Amino acid sequence: MEPQTQLAGIRLIAFDLDNTLYDESQYFAGAFAAIAPMLAARSGWDRVRIEARLEATLREKGRHYHYLFNDVLAEIGLDPRAELAGVLALFRAVEPPLEPFPGTRELLADLRRRYRLGMITSGMRSVQENKVRLLGIGEYFEEIVYSSTLPENKPGRLPFQRLLDALGVEAGAAVYVGDNPLFDFKGANELGMITLRVHNPEFDGMEVAPECDGSIRVPRVTDLRPLLL
User: Fold this and answer.
1) Is 187 exposed, middle or buried (0-12, 13-18, 19+ CB in 10 A)?
2) Tell me, which fold does domain 3-22+100-228 have in CATH?
3) What is the mean pLDDT of each run of 10 residues along the chain (229 residues)?
4) What residue segments make up the domains of the chain, in order of their start?
5) Which residues of 50-85 are buried (b: 16+ CB within 10 A; e: fewer)?
6) Taking the complete model, does pTM exceed 0.70, yes or no?
């Protein structure tokens, strides 16, 4: 079925945040630049070396690895039990300059005139709220679901159902736009939402089961424009 046919009758467009609307590496780079000097002062390690270790661990383990800071703290001779809370507090509050992908702000403004817009994002709520604020895009969304606060996170159904219920839209009249086949599409597909996968090179070469993939694929989020406007 052609994408335009699949998208006929859509009332709600819901978006993932990280690496769908902006490049998440901007946030990590800003956070690492702020965290490294603090850890250098406590450990005796050089700030540049600590920042390099944070970046290398992120590349090796991926952005969804939950023990990045634990690993690096232990490597530089600091006790994660004593230091982790301070590192996470800085990670939540850091304020690097963030910019959406080119053309994304204009796309959201135009979509909002025709559709209802929502967001479902995982990760620590305080961090995700900080990102939305720094990006300056919160005003475009009628409802934002921070799925880490729910009994079931993405890729389960509950976050998607919560958004549909909040906005009173049936699953068949909604599309979810994301980039990550590990987290973004399974629950939405099970509910009967249309799923749209934005290319992310991190997942190139990964074999993805159909139920975990987007039913439509585009190179960039701004390629929604000819499909929906």
Assistant:
1) buried
2) Rossmann fold (3.40.50)
3) 82 98 97 97 96 96 91 97 96 96 98 98 95 98 97 97 98 98 96 98 92 96 96
4) 3-22+100-228, 25-93
5) bbebbbebbeeeebeeeebbbbbbeebebeeeebee
6) yes
